[in-house]
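Work Package 3 (structural annotation) set out to generate three-dimensional models for the target panel prioritized at the project kickoff. During this period the team completed the workflow that converts sequence records into discrete structure tokens, so that structures can be stored uniformly alongside our sequence database. As a representative example, we reproduce one entry of 272 residues exactly as it appears in the project archive.
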Amino acid sequence: MKKPLKTVMAFGTFDLLHPGHKYFLSQAKKLGDYLIVVIARNKTVKKVKGKLPEHNEKQRQGAVMSLNLADKVILGDREAEKYGIIKKYRPEIICLGYDQKYFVDGLNELFKKIKLNTEIIRLKPFKPELYKTSIINMEKITKHSTIGAIIKQGDKILMVDRKNIPLGWACVAGHIETGETPEQTLIKEVKEEADLNVKKFKLLIHEFVPFGTCGRGFTGHDWYIYEVLNYEGEVKLSSEHKAIGWKTVAEINKLQLEEVWEYFFKKLKIIF
């Protein structure tokens, strides 16, 4: 007779994903056979923290799914249906973060009421002095935010091969410095890295990506990906790059891309 799967359920906001979140989910997954991650609703986050999260519930759900750690990623109960997910999935283990306080009250009473022998495990943190969302929230604009520029010429995209970390082929990109807006950084970086003058652009993606270590030593960045719609000038090789050039999609598929750019190109269905 086949042994039933041990279901583990983890709850959280998972806003601005960082290595601490990944560590939490990795530890939770080790406790059972099937991990269900429950993403807090926008209204729940506002009620608990007094403000809405940086990313909405669907974006946070997608970000957790992209980690490929959970077997199932679902949105939490609405206020009127509190504990409905627990009643439905009846997990053997519920994992909570080291500082998670909301939602805990009433769980033991619920277990008795629905005859559920569920264990609550509070997991240890991973470098909380660095990887706590409230800290990242304060620092993300000056330290963790980055722009990327997709610049096209017909059916080709401008690609650069960097000399330093992060190594690999990528689009023009750069950190948003203190006092800069993402748009100001976009214009500055395209000029510095490609000697092009940006005239028109549009934002394609704004997303926190939890992987990809930069030359400053940060893993995970809040990315603003733009498409440059109009520009002036001729491309020139920057001292930051080994090579720069216009590449077709077929050529891009053969390049050794930076991990984060492979992710964005697939997300935008540029490559498959």
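Residues 133-142 have pLDDT under 50 and may be disordered.
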